[in-house]
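4.2 Preliminary Data

To establish feasibility before requesting continued support, the project team ran the inverse folding procedure on a target of 420 residues. The structure was first converted into the token representation described in Section 3, and no sequence information of any kind was made available to the design step. The complete token record follows.
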């Protein structure tokens, strides 16, 4: 047995080549060509030589008697491998036994049937959003986790669209039945009720007597009322001189007025005295900004009453590493509403709004808004000729009368006065 050795050859680099000098390697997508001599190849290049992206674009056409093939290096059907690696073709000269190495590029030849539209001829969807493009990439190249998240989001989107359509249909039905004006009025009433519910005591609009509209137990529970026994006894024991001193000091005028006209004996006197002490704490609380745990200790406030005041009429804030209790503007409105409800129980369902807004340190318009939100009837005594009537004519009274008054909401904002 004899072994035949291959003849030796050497490689020769052809130097720097242009794109036009590259060799062409074709691959037919529908199979192999049996006789390549029957194909007529034509190369087309882009005429824009100045554009660096377009000047390297090529279209290769192979025509035969039966079918035509087209391939390119830039459209969707081109081979991406041309951009990832370099291809070379070796041409052997049998006489000199030297192989010349040339740059090459691959073309994927696809058959073209006359009358058939290709994907390249389809216009690009310009309405596709960035989100849709990302979803298409996830569908094609995303991980299983990304595909599950995409499927879940699309299912939720379908459910959300269905819900929106149902809501829109229901809204149109309601608008057609009630009308726009009636719905706007309902929205105004609902918003006003929602804002007032933040500071108005629990209200029983179906009550048969005025005392049951704002229940006393919602203002002071039986346990809290019992805890005020000792403090109420001290209030009941105040002398007329001490009450006059409180009046001269200009504080708690509502409390002084209730103590001056409270019953002389019996449970009614004890109830007024306890409520007067609790009312004095609320009025003092309204004058504060930040509170400490020492609030009410000088007056002998029971711990359960202090906790109730902090929980009901303050908001917690974090400052300098400590939790502080603060009386906000909305909490002052709440104190005003609860104080007014307590005065109604102390004064046979009638309260003096003028004294109350002075003790709280708020404006008269603000206390009137609170009284209106509670459905109270506002009255202002007519001017009289006597001195007593002259002192009384500026005091506005609020009474709880069934049915409750429903006031119209003032929607326009008040104009501020310009400062000169």
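Position-by-position output of the design step:
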């Amino acid at each position: 047995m004899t072994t035949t050795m291959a003849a030796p050859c050497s490689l020769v680099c052809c130097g720097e080549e242009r794109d036009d000098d590259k060799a062409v390697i074709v691959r037919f997508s529908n199979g192999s060509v049996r006789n390549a001599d029957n194909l007529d190849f034509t190369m087309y290049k882009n005429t824009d030589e100045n554009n660096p992206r377009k000047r390297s674009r090529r279209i290769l056409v192979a025509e035969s008697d039966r079918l035509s093939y087209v391939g390119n290096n830039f459209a969707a059907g081109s081979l991406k491998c041309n951009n990832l690696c370099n291809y070379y073709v070796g041409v052997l000269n049998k006489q000199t036994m030297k192989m010349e190495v040339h740059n090459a590029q691959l073309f994927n030849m696809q058959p073209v049937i006359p009358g058939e539209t290709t994907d390249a001829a389809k216009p690009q969807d310009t309405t596709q959003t960035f989100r849709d493009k990302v979803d298409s990439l996830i569908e094609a190249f995303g991980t299983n986790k990304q595909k599950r998240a995409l499927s879940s989001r699309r299912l939720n989107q379908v459910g959300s669209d269905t819900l929106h359509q149902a809501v829109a249909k229901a809204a149109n039905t309601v608008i057609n039945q009630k009308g726009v004006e009636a719905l706007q009025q309902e929205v105004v009433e609902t918003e006003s009720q929602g804002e007032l519910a933040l500071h108005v005591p629990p209200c029983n609009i179906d009550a048969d007597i005025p005392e049951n509209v704002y229940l006393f137990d919602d203002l002071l529970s039986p346990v809290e009322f019992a805890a005020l026994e000792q403090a109420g006894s001290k209030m009941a024991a105040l002398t007329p001189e001490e009450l006059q001193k409180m009046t001269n000091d200009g504080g708690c005028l509502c409390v002084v007025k209730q103590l001056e006209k409270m019953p002389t004996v019996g449970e009614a006197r004890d109830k007024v005295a306890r409520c007067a002490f609790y009312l004095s704490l609320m009025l003092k609380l309204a004058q504060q900004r930040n509170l400490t745990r020492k609030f009410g200790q000088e007056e002998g406030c029971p711990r359960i009453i202090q906790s109730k005041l902090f929980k009901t009429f303050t908001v917690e804030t974090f400052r300098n590493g400590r939790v502080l209790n603060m009386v906000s503007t909305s909490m002052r409105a709440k104190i005003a509403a609860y104080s007014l409800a307590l005065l109604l129980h102390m004064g046979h369902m009638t309260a003096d709004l003028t004294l109350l807004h002075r003790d709280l340190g708020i404006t008269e318009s603000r206390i009137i808004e609170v009284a209106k939100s509670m459905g109270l009837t506002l009255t202002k005594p007519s001017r009289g000729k006597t001195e007593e009537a002259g002192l009384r004519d500026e005091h506005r009274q609020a009474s709880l009368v069934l049915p409750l008054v429903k006031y119209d909401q003032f929607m326009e904002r008040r104009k501020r006065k310009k400062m000169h």
